[in-house]
């Protein structure tokens, strides 16, 4: 009431100017609404590694999400226009490939738009170009159920499985051409947990697998210097952790009944890989 009394006491021309200013301030809010109202989606990428390559480079043009049942609902989350070496995203390492404010609601798909070129794999020091057979137009589509809420950050973890995505197209044992057939899974980070430990000795260089039943759900390669490993993005449950030595001088081992809880890291300590038995 005090503000209204002051406005009534000013000249009409000044009153009109104040009214225009107030209307402009209310509408120039970038669609956030009077109380903020927008949520945030952040997309992180990690990798299940490949043992037969030294680098796997993938060029991502755009990251998009969809909140409709048709092709009209796509929203650009980010345009990285950047190449990523998937083999740098192991042992819990992630890369943010998109983060943006979104209107609240349920987003049911995400897709990565890849470039026509710019993908490569390095094998034994030699770099080979990779083609995406399906082309970059439709992108890699993944079904999600991301509920964006006001003032909340929703983090989506994309696991780009390099070991299943790089396909040798040449004759057996003499591959000179490679194809990129992306295999990617998406999980909400907030409902997952992790496993970490240390392989001893580090020179055993094991590939570490998280196995549920008969399914291998995630993998990584233990650090070749420290032996440390970390597997992220696991749903709650019980897992076998298999350490497969890449050094023939050591045996592979399995740690059973590793329990993973949401939002926690299961620390399994030091796992010894015994020397290989002599025949």
Describe this structure in words.
- The model is unreliable at 1-34 (pLDDT under 50).
- Strands 2, 3, 4, 6, 7, 8, 9, 11 and 12 form a 9-stranded mixed β-sheet that branches. A 4-stranded mixed β-sheet has the order 5-1-10-13. Strands 16-15-18-19 form a 4-stranded antiparallel β-sheet, with no helix packed on it.
- The chain has 279 residues and is mostly beta strands.
- The longest helix is centred in the N-terminal third of the chain and has 16 residues, at 12-27.
- The chain has 3 helices and 20 strands.
- It has 2 domains: 36-190; 192-279, Carboxypeptidase-like, regulatory domain (Immunoglobulin-like, Sandwich), CATH 2.60.40.
- InterPro entries: DUF4382.
- Pfam families: DUF4382.
- Residues 39-182 form the DUF4382 domain.
In brief, what are we looking at here?
InterPro entries: DUF4382 (IPR025491). The chain has 279 residues and is mainly β.
Descriptive terms for the model:
279 residues, mainly beta, Immunoglobulin-like, 2 domains, 4-stranded mixed beta sheet, 20 strands, globular, DUF4382 domain-containing protein, DUF4382
Taken in chain order, the helices and strands follow as HHEEEEEEEEEEHEEEEEEEEEE
Arithmetic mean pLDDT = 85
In total, how many beta strands? 20
* Beta-strand fraction estimate: over 45%
- Spans of 5+ residues with little confidence (pLDDT < 50)? 1-34
Q: What is the approximate shape? A: globular
What structural class results from the helix and strand content? mainly beta
Count of individual helical segments: 3
Sheet of most strands: 9 strands, mixed
Tally of discrete structural domains: 2
DSSP helix fraction? under 10%
Rg for CA atoms: 25 Å
């Amino acid at each position: 009431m005090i503000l209204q009394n002051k406005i009534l006491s000013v000249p009409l021309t000044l009153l009109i100017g104040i009214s225009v200013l107030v209307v402009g301030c209310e509408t120039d809010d970038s669609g956030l609404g009077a109380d903020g109202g927008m949520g945030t989606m952040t997309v992180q990428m990690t990798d299940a590694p490949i043992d037969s390559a030294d680098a796997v480079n993938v060029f991502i043009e755009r990251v998009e999400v969809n909140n409709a049942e048709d092709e009209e609902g796509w929203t650009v989350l980010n345009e990285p226009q950047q190449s990523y070496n998937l083999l740098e995203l192991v042992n819990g390492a992630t890369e943010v490939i998109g983060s943006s404010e979104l209107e609240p609601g349920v987003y049911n798909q995400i897709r990565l738009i890849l470039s026509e070129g710019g993908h490569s794999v390095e094998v034994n020091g030699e770099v080979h170009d990779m083609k995406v057979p399906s082309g970059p137009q439709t992108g890699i589509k993944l079904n999600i159920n991301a509920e964006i809420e006001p003032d909340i950050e929703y983090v989506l973890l994309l696991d780009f499985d390099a070991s299943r995505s790089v396909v040798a197209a040449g004759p057996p044992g003499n591959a000179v051409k490679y194809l990129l057939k992306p295999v990617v899974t998406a999980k909400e980070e907030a409902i997952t947990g992790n496993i970490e430990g240390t392989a001893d000795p580090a020179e055993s260089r094991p590939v570490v697998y998280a196995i549920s039943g008969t399914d291998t759900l995630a993998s990584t390669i233990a650090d070749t210097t420290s032996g440390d490993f970390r597997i992220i993005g696991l749903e709650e449950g019980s897992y076998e952790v298999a350490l497969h030595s890449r050094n023939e001088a050591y045996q592979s081992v399995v740690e059973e009944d590793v329990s993973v809880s949401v939002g926690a890291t299961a620390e399994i300590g030091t796992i010894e890989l015994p020397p290989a038995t002599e025949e």
